[in-house]
Amino acid sequence: MFKDRKPISTIHGADPRKLSEVVKRLATEADSDGPGGIGETSTANSAWLGAASPKGYYDVTDQIDVRGLDLLNSDSNLGDARTLFNRSKPFALAGGRVNTDLDGNERRIDWVESDTDEQLMLYIPFQSTLRVHTLQITSLPPKDLDQEGGDAVMRPKTLHLYTNRAHVLGFEEAEDLAATQTIVLQPQDWDGGTGTVKVELRFVKFQKVSSLVLFVSDGHGEGERVRIDRVRIIGEKGEKRELGRLEKIGDEPGE
């Protein structure tokens, strides 16, 4: 048996009893949700994850070109696009501990909400071409949804993903384009402990990804605001690209 790539137990021969004991012990450790478990960072240098990564794939969020991030229709009094990729646990889950942003500044408001309606448009460029397997999206609306001003804050419901765009899409432009993939999330998809949903993608369509556009077109409920606390990209790293020379990749030559 291996844990964190280190051998922790060895069983010689066919011994179902010993195997069962080891498996039960490992299951107990996983359920304890301590350091290295779900909802925690595995090392001091690791980013917080709200869910386990699929076997064989890794958190590649560090491949984002943060200078090129763009976010449309977000409330300017709250977080910005960089907030979504903060390496720390969301403040709403941090038990009162103060988080820091990407520049090391203390920040208690470490989430994003839409502004004039429930739609958000997020542009994510990468430093290298990636194979993207899964998105992890964390959303932690207050349990008391009656906010100041009467606006109910919702989790995202319908997601539209577009690959290899040279810049962020306008809302009307996105509605006129065929998405690489559209996902409709259900309330039960969200983890009750971490507020995270695992969005598994059609892997064959996300093999050479130099940028992603995430369009949240609506939320769960009747409110006017959608909240996102964290986004994580799970997949495999590819070749480094020359920043500043991102080009759209179409289905036909010249597109």
Percent strand equals: 25-35%
Largest sheet features: 8 strands, antiparallel
- Low-pLDDT parts are 31-38, 40-44, 145-150, 246-255
C-alpha Rg, in Å?
A: 20 Å
Q: Overall 3D geometry? A: globular
Task: Write down the secondary-structure element order.
Answer: EEHEEEEEEEEHEEEEE
Structural class: mainly beta
SS summary, helix count = 2
Helical content class: under 10%
Mean pLDDT, as a whole number? 83
- What is the terminal separation in angstroms? 50 Å
Report the count of strand segments. Answer: 15
Give a structural overview.
- It is a single chain.
- By secondary structure, the chain is mainly beta.
- It is about 10% helix and about 30% strand.
- The protein is built from two helices and 15 strands.
- The chain has helices at about 15-30, 170-175, and strands spanning about 1-5, 5, 60, 70, 100, 105, 110-115, 120-140, 155, 155-165, 180-185, 195-200, 210-220, 225-230, 230-240.
- The longest helix has 16 residues, at about 15-30.
- The radius of gyration is 20 Å and the shape is globular.
- Mean pLDDT is about 85; it is low at about 30-40, about 40-45, about 145-150 and about 245-255.
